[in-house]
């Protein structure tokens, strides 16, 4: 483990040398270290340095819009995205006094659904509480359509010709797997 840490620090030094050569210096305050595993075990980890300054340990980090935590549970990411999607559903509810099926599908797919699907290949939920939390956004949103409040969720989806979000994640996983094996 110590040998690996020294090799990684050596790679950091090489990266710094490359960045200086190409005039792309790293800002040490913007560099963070995310150790995978239990966050309380980081005190036993090697302390890495960039530009002579120790890199700060963090329990989670946002990269390309996905919040990763040290245990790869993606709890913070899912909660954040569900909250954002629910806020947008609330805005839709307050902005439209009447929503027909066609308008709802266009608005929901354009403004809400992408928040719940972006990067799902990386963070796709496996815990029932996360799956339900995400699906509840669409369950709640489909009740906004006039005349749909008394229908069951599967009936609403059938009338709207929308799949469940869980089905879309499964379909996305199958597409990515196919791409991987068929280049």
Q: Given the structure, what is the number of helices?
A: 8
User: What structural category arises from helix and sheet content?
Assistant: mainly alpha
Terminal CA distance: 35 Å
Walk across the major sheet and give the strand order. 1-4
Global mean pLDDT: 91
Largest sheet: 2 strands, parallel
Give the helices and strands as they follow along the chain: HEEEEEEHHHHHHH
Task: Report the principal-axis shape.
Answer: elongated
Please estimate the helix content.
55-70%
Any overview of this molecule?
With 183 residues, this protein is mainly alpha-helical. It is built from eight helices and six strands; from the N terminus they run αββββββααααααα. It has a two-stranded parallel ribbon. Helix 2 (75-95) packs parallel to helix 6. The chain is elongated and about 65 Å long. The two termini are 35 Å apart.
Secondary structure elements and pairings:
Elements: H1 2-21, E1 32-34, E2 49-50, E3 53-54, E4 56-58, E5 60-63, E6 66-69, H2 75-95, H3 101-111, H4 113-117, H5 120-123, H6 128-142, H7 153-160, H8 165-182
Parallel strand pairs: 1-4
Antiparallel strand pairs: 2-3, 5-6
Helix pairs in contact: 2-6
